[in-house]
Design brief:
The chain is mainly alpha-helical. It is 45% helix and 9% strand. It has 2 domains: 19-93 and 147-266, Alpha-Beta Barrel (TIM Barrel), CATH 3.20.20; 96-144. Helix 4 runs parallel beside helix 6 (124-138) and helix 8 (180-198) runs parallel beside helix 9 (214-222).
């Protein structure tokens, strides 16, 4: 599980790794492991026969650098990937709310954690209004979006034969805290919006924050998703549920550490 392939001065959630480190990871996967697409992995799970040393690459959120940086490196090395996109942010001039919060808190010279806890449970409109209020307190305009995909970039990303577009809700909420109707709107709405953009079925899903309930799982299945990823940190096995696949959060490890971390998990 990756997020952004770029360096960041403030990265409390460890969502960013540099392009050089990611390139090392991709080359290690190509040389030492068996890269699979998420759909291929799902088929092997159903068959009960996952090939030895299989690795699947996924990205959460839909950062622009997944297109500008990761896509060329994946294609150069023949490694497939799934990019789970938060659909509301595609084509808008506003960054992911957590990135915008880091920027405004840096301008205010205050830590972002307390504000993150305050903004996290709010709805999309309320959260953006609070961010606007913080920018006003700084006395400067909100900067142009730097992290999100344009609609054309998403289309081009999905056109790559190595890249699958998956859904990651509309606005990246903690799904289990929402009503059933609100969850349905987030889940089904993201699928519809992404399919309209990429012109192809979207059948894979990733739970924001890894947060879901049995109601969430049922709604994901009802929306037509056949595979869903969590943030549970363990390897996939033939006993894994296709709507609750675990993933390892890849950090900015060098090639040797990355290899060691994968070998350790694959041996468990």
């Amino acid at each position: 599980m990756y997020h952004s392939i770029s360096a960041a001065p403030h990265d409390p959630w460890r969502l960013h790794i540099g392009a050089d480190r990611f390139e090392e990871h991709v080359r290690v996967i190509r040389r030492r492991y068996r890269p699979l697409s998420l759909r291929q992995l799902a088929a092997h799970v159903l068959d009960g026969d996952i090939p030895s040393r299989s690795v699947v690459v996924t990205f959460d959120d839909g950062y622009r650098d997944n297109f500008t940086v990761a896509k060329p490196l994946l294609e150069e090395n023949g490694v497939p990937a799934t990019v789970f996109v938060t659909s509301h942010y595609v084509g808008v001039d506003r960054d992911f709310w957590w990135e915008e919060l880091e920027a405004v808190c840096a301008a205010l010279r205050v830590g972002a954690r307390q504000e993150w806890e305050r903004l996290r449970p709010l709805g999309l409109g309320e959260r953006e209004a609070e961010l606007d209020r913080l920018w006003a307190a700084v006395g400067q305009s909100r900067p142009r979006a730097a992290f999100v995909l344009t609609r054309d970039e998403l289309t081009d990303l999905g056109a790559s034969p190595l890249i699958e577009i998956g859904a990651h809700t509309r606005s990246h909420p903690h799904l289990a805290t929402l009503s059933e109707l609100e969850q349905e709107q987030e889940i089904e709405g993201s699928r519809r919006e992404l399919e309209a953009n990429v012109g192809a079925p979207v059948t894979s899903f990733s739970y924001p924050h890894g947060d879901f309930s049995q109601v969430t799982r049922r709604l994901v299945q009802a929306a037509g998703f056949t595979v869903a990823c969590t943030t549970k940190s363990r390897p996939v096995s033939s006993a894994s549920a296709l709507l609750e696949l675990p993933r390892v959060h890849a950090l900015g490890w060098d090639a040797a550490t990355f290899t060691r971390e994968l070998d350790r998990r694959l041996a468990s």
